[in-house]
Protein backbone atom coordinates (compact mmCIF):
# COMPACT_ATOMS: atom_id res chain seq x y z
CA UNK A 1 0.00 0.00 0.00
CA UNK A 2 1.48 3.37 -1.08
CA UNK A 3 0.69 6.12 1.40
CA UNK A 4 1.85 9.10 -0.65
CA UNK A 5 0.57 9.93 -4.10
CA UNK A 6 3.41 12.36 -4.60
CA UNK A 7 6.50 13.44 -2.70
CA UNK A 8 9.40 15.73 -3.46
CA UNK A 9 12.67 16.59 -1.78
CA UNK A 10 15.44 19.15 -2.33
CA UNK A 11 13.53 20.92 -5.11
CA UNK A 12 15.19 24.15 -6.18
CA UNK A 13 14.28 26.65 -8.87
CA UNK A 14 16.13 29.71 -10.08
CA UNK A 15 14.99 32.04 -12.84
CA UNK A 16 18.18 32.46 -14.84
CA UNK A 17 16.99 35.32 -17.02
CA UNK A 18 16.45 37.53 -13.95
CA UNK A 19 19.96 37.65 -12.47
CA UNK A 20 19.72 34.14 -11.05
CA UNK A 21 16.81 34.99 -8.78
CA UNK A 22 16.18 32.03 -6.48
CA UNK A 23 12.47 31.28 -6.28
CA UNK A 24 12.81 28.42 -3.82
CA UNK A 25 15.63 26.27 -2.58
CA UNK A 26 15.68 22.65 -1.38
CA UNK A 27 12.01 22.45 -0.51
CA UNK A 28 10.26 19.20 0.36
CA UNK A 29 6.67 18.06 0.66
CA UNK A 30 4.31 15.11 0.47
CA UNK A 31 0.79 14.60 -0.77
CA UNK A 32 -0.74 11.61 1.02
CA UNK A 33 -3.47 9.73 -0.87
CA UNK A 34 -6.72 11.69 -0.95
CA UNK A 35 -5.21 14.75 0.76
CA UNK A 36 -6.95 18.14 0.47
CA UNK A 37 -4.21 20.73 0.45
CA UNK A 38 -4.79 24.44 0.20
CA UNK A 39 -1.69 26.26 -1.03
CA UNK A 40 -1.28 29.82 0.22
CA UNK A 41 1.38 32.52 0.35
CA UNK A 42 2.08 36.02 -0.87
CA UNK A 43 2.00 36.80 -4.56
CA UNK A 44 5.08 36.04 -6.63
CA UNK A 45 6.62 33.55 -4.20
CA UNK A 46 6.58 30.59 -6.60
CA UNK A 47 3.34 28.70 -5.89
CA UNK A 48 2.42 28.39 -9.57
CA UNK A 49 6.01 27.53 -10.44
CA UNK A 50 6.03 24.68 -7.90
CA UNK A 51 2.71 23.26 -9.14
CA UNK A 52 3.88 23.53 -12.76
CA UNK A 53 7.03 21.59 -11.84
CA UNK A 54 5.01 18.91 -10.05
CA UNK A 55 2.74 18.66 -13.12
CA UNK A 56 5.77 18.41 -15.47
CA UNK A 57 5.04 21.68 -17.25
CA UNK A 58 8.25 23.23 -15.95
CA UNK A 59 11.51 21.78 -14.71
CA UNK A 60 13.25 22.14 -11.36
CA UNK A 61 16.99 22.90 -11.39
CA UNK A 62 17.58 20.04 -8.97
CA UNK A 63 15.71 17.74 -6.62
CA UNK A 64 13.76 14.50 -6.65
CA UNK A 65 10.08 13.77 -7.21
CA UNK A 66 8.30 10.46 -6.63
CA UNK A 67 4.85 9.57 -7.93
CA UNK A 68 3.19 6.48 -6.45
CA UNK A 69 6.58 5.51 -5.00
CA UNK A 70 8.41 5.64 -8.35
CA UNK A 71 11.01 8.32 -9.19
CA UNK A 72 10.38 10.73 -12.06
CA UNK A 73 13.06 9.24 -14.33
CA UNK A 74 11.24 5.90 -14.31
CA UNK A 75 8.01 7.50 -15.55
CA UNK A 76 6.92 8.19 -19.09
CA UNK A 77 6.08 11.96 -18.81
CA UNK A 78 2.71 11.42 -20.47
CA UNK A 79 1.75 8.78 -17.89
CA UNK A 80 2.88 11.13 -15.11
CA UNK A 81 0.72 13.95 -16.56
CA UNK A 82 -2.28 11.64 -16.72
CA UNK A 83 -2.00 10.96 -12.98
CA UNK A 84 -1.07 14.49 -11.94
CA UNK A 85 -3.04 17.23 -13.74
CA UNK A 86 -2.18 20.90 -13.51
CA UNK A 87 -5.14 23.22 -14.15
CA UNK A 88 -4.17 26.79 -14.94
CA UNK A 89 -5.79 30.03 -13.84
CA UNK A 90 -5.61 31.22 -17.46
CA UNK A 91 -6.29 28.08 -19.48
CA UNK A 92 -5.51 27.75 -23.13
CA UNK A 93 -8.33 26.43 -25.30
CA UNK A 94 -7.33 24.24 -28.19
CA UNK A 95 -8.69 24.98 -31.64
CA UNK A 96 -12.22 23.75 -32.34
CA UNK A 97 -15.36 23.22 -30.29
CA UNK A 98 -15.78 22.53 -26.58
CA UNK A 99 -16.27 18.87 -27.45
CA UNK A 100 -13.05 18.86 -29.50
CA UNK A 101 -11.29 20.21 -26.42
CA UNK A 102 -12.79 17.56 -24.18
CA UNK A 103 -12.02 14.74 -26.62
CA UNK A 104 -8.43 15.85 -27.14
CA UNK A 105 -7.25 14.64 -23.73
CA UNK A 106 -8.61 11.16 -24.44
CA UNK A 107 -6.92 11.13 -27.82
CA UNK A 108 -3.58 12.28 -26.41
CA UNK A 109 -3.66 9.83 -23.54
CA UNK A 110 -5.22 6.93 -25.46
CA UNK A 111 -8.15 6.66 -23.07
CA UNK A 112 -11.77 6.23 -24.03
CA UNK A 113 -13.87 9.42 -24.15
CA UNK A 114 -16.83 9.06 -21.81
CA UNK A 115 -19.65 11.37 -23.06
CA UNK A 116 -21.91 10.66 -20.08
CA UNK A 117 -19.16 11.58 -17.61
CA UNK A 118 -18.34 14.69 -19.70
CA UNK A 119 -22.02 15.73 -19.56
CA UNK A 120 -22.14 15.11 -15.79
CA UNK A 121 -18.99 17.22 -15.22
CA UNK A 122 -20.19 20.06 -17.49
CA UNK A 123 -23.50 20.17 -15.70
CA UNK A 124 -21.81 20.04 -12.27
CA UNK A 125 -19.79 23.17 -13.06
CA UNK A 126 -22.89 25.02 -14.29
CA UNK A 127 -22.29 24.55 -18.02
CA UNK A 128 -24.97 21.92 -18.60
CA UNK A 129 -26.91 24.13 -20.99
CA UNK A 130 -23.95 25.07 -23.11
CA UNK A 131 -23.86 23.30 -26.46
CA UNK A 132 -20.68 21.28 -26.84
CA UNK A 133 -20.45 22.43 -30.47
CA UNK A 134 -19.72 26.02 -29.39
CA UNK A 135 -16.34 27.30 -30.54
CA UNK A 136 -14.03 27.15 -27.50
CA UNK A 137 -12.14 30.34 -28.39
CA UNK A 138 -15.36 32.36 -28.01
CA UNK A 139 -15.92 31.37 -24.37
CA UNK A 140 -15.59 33.86 -21.50
CA UNK A 141 -12.67 33.58 -19.07
CA UNK A 142 -14.84 31.90 -16.44
CA UNK A 143 -16.28 29.45 -18.99
CA UNK A 144 -12.78 28.58 -20.21
CA UNK A 145 -11.67 27.93 -16.61
CA UNK A 146 -14.50 25.45 -16.14
CA UNK A 147 -14.04 23.70 -19.51
CA UNK A 148 -10.32 23.34 -18.74
CA UNK A 149 -11.18 21.80 -15.37
CA UNK A 150 -13.61 19.34 -16.99
CA UNK A 151 -10.97 18.51 -19.61
CA UNK A 152 -8.56 17.51 -16.83
CA UNK A 153 -11.15 15.69 -14.71
CA UNK A 154 -12.01 13.45 -17.66
CA UNK A 155 -8.62 11.82 -17.16
CA UNK A 156 -9.64 10.80 -13.64
CA UNK A 157 -6.23 11.85 -12.26
CA UNK A 158 -4.99 10.77 -8.85
CA UNK A 159 -3.86 14.29 -8.03
CA UNK A 160 -5.14 17.70 -9.16
CA UNK A 161 -2.89 20.75 -9.08
CA UNK A 162 -5.33 23.64 -9.12
CA UNK A 163 -4.01 27.15 -9.75
CA UNK A 164 -6.61 29.70 -8.61
CA UNK A 165 -9.15 27.98 -10.81
CA UNK A 166 -12.12 29.96 -9.54
CA UNK A 167 -10.55 33.41 -9.94
CA UNK A 168 -12.88 34.41 -12.82
CA UNK A 169 -16.04 32.81 -11.43
CA UNK A 170 -19.12 34.27 -9.77
CA UNK A 171 -20.07 32.88 -6.36
CA UNK A 172 -22.59 30.34 -7.68
CA UNK A 173 -20.10 28.84 -10.15
CA UNK A 174 -17.30 29.00 -7.57
CA UNK A 175 -19.30 26.99 -5.03
CA UNK A 176 -20.32 24.51 -7.76
CA UNK A 177 -16.66 23.92 -8.64
CA UNK A 178 -15.70 23.53 -4.96
CA UNK A 179 -18.53 21.03 -4.46
CA UNK A 180 -17.57 19.00 -7.54
CA UNK A 181 -13.93 18.73 -6.53
CA UNK A 182 -14.64 17.87 -2.91
CA UNK A 183 -17.21 15.27 -4.08
CA UNK A 184 -14.64 13.66 -6.39
CA UNK A 185 -12.15 13.70 -3.52
CA UNK A 186 -14.63 11.92 -1.25
CA UNK A 187 -15.92 9.46 -3.82
CA UNK A 188 -12.74 8.61 -5.75
CA UNK A 189 -9.97 9.62 -3.34
CA UNK A 190 -8.58 12.19 -5.78
CA UNK A 191 -6.18 14.43 -3.87
CA UNK A 192 -5.49 18.05 -4.62
CA UNK A 193 -3.16 20.95 -3.99
CA UNK A 194 -5.23 24.08 -4.61
CA UNK A 195 -3.76 27.58 -4.73
CA UNK A 196 -6.16 30.09 -3.26
CA UNK A 197 -5.85 33.69 -2.09
CA UNK A 198 -9.37 33.60 -0.64
CA UNK A 199 -9.31 32.78 3.07
CA UNK A 200 -12.95 31.72 3.20
CA UNK A 201 -12.43 29.40 0.25
CA UNK A 202 -9.23 28.06 1.80
CA UNK A 203 -11.12 27.17 4.96
CA UNK A 204 -13.85 25.41 2.93
CA UNK A 205 -11.60 23.33 0.71
CA UNK A 206 -8.47 22.65 2.74
CA UNK A 207 -7.58 20.09 5.34
CA UNK A 208 -3.88 20.80 5.29
CA UNK A 209 -2.01 23.95 4.38
CA UNK A 210 1.11 24.51 2.32
CA UNK A 211 2.58 27.95 2.64
CA UNK A 212 5.38 29.22 0.41
CA UNK A 213 7.20 32.32 1.51
CA UNK A 214 10.79 33.54 1.16
CA UNK A 215 11.81 30.40 -0.68
CA UNK A 216 10.61 28.04 2.04
CA UNK A 217 7.64 25.68 2.00
CA UNK A 218 5.97 25.02 5.33
CA UNK A 219 3.15 22.56 6.02
CA UNK A 220 0.54 22.72 8.71
CA UNK A 221 -3.05 22.14 9.74
CA UNK A 222 -5.93 24.31 8.66
CA UNK A 223 -5.68 26.25 11.92
CA UNK A 224 -2.57 27.99 10.43
CA UNK A 225 -4.77 30.00 8.10
N1 LIG B 1 9.02 31.85 -17.01
C1 LIG B 1 9.40 32.78 -16.15
N2 LIG B 1 10.35 33.67 -16.49
C2 LIG B 1 10.74 34.65 -15.63
N3 LIG B 1 10.22 34.78 -14.39
C3 LIG B 1 9.28 33.92 -14.01
C4 LIG B 1 8.81 32.86 -14.85
N4 LIG B 1 7.86 32.16 -14.18
C5 LIG B 1 7.75 32.76 -12.96
N5 LIG B 1 8.61 33.80 -12.86
C6 LIG B 1 8.81 34.64 -11.67
O1 LIG B 1 8.92 33.75 -10.59
C7 LIG B 1 8.30 34.29 -9.43
C8 LIG B 1 7.25 33.32 -8.91
O2 LIG B 1 6.12 33.32 -9.79
P1 LIG B 1 4.83 32.41 -9.52
O3 LIG B 1 3.83 32.73 -10.58
O4 LIG B 1 5.27 31.01 -9.39
O5 LIG B 1 4.36 32.96 -8.09
P2 LIG B 1 2.98 32.75 -7.32
O6 LIG B 1 3.34 32.55 -5.88
O7 LIG B 1 2.18 31.68 -7.97
O8 LIG B 1 2.28 34.16 -7.53
P3 LIG B 1 0.69 34.58 -7.58
O9 LIG B 1 0.13 34.25 -6.23
O10 LIG B 1 0.77 36.05 -7.86
O11 LIG B 1 0.08 33.80 -8.72
C9 LIG B 1 7.76 35.66 -9.84
O12 LIG B 1 8.72 36.64 -9.47
C10 LIG B 1 7.64 35.54 -11.34
O13 LIG B 1 7.77 36.80 -11.94
UniProtKB/TrEMBL annotation:
<keyword id="KW-0813">Transport</keyword>
<dbReference type="InterPro" id="IPR003439">
    <property type="entry name" value="ABC_transporter-like_ATP-bd"/>
</dbReference>
<feature type="domain" description="ABC transporter">
    <location>
        <begin position="6"/>
        <end position="225"/>
    </location>
</feature>
<dbReference type="GO" id="GO:0016887">
    <property type="term" value="F:ATP hydrolysis activity"/>
</dbReference>
<keyword id="KW-0547">Nucleotide-binding</keyword>
<dbReference type="InterPro" id="IPR003593">
    <property type="entry name" value="AAA+_ATPase"/>
</dbReference>
<dbReference type="Pfam" id="PF00005">
    <property type="entry name" value="ABC_tran"/>
</dbReference>
<dbReference type="InterPro" id="IPR017871">
    <property type="entry name" value="ABC_transporter-like_CS"/>
</dbReference>
<keyword id="KW-0067">ATP-binding</keyword>
<protein>
    <recommendedName>
        <fullName>ABC transporter domain-containing protein</fullName>
    </recommendedName>
</protein>
<dbReference type="GO" id="GO:0005524">
    <property type="term" value="F:ATP binding"/>
</dbReference>
<dbReference type="InterPro" id="IPR027417">
    <property type="entry name" value="P-loop_NTPase"/>
</dbReference>
Amino acid sequence: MIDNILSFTNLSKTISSVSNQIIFSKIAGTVPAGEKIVFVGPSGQGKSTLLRILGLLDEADSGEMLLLGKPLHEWNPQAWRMNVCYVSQTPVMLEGSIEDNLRTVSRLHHTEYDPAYAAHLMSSVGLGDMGLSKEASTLSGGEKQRVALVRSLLLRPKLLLLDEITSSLDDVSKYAVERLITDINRQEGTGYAWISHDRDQAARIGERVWSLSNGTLSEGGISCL
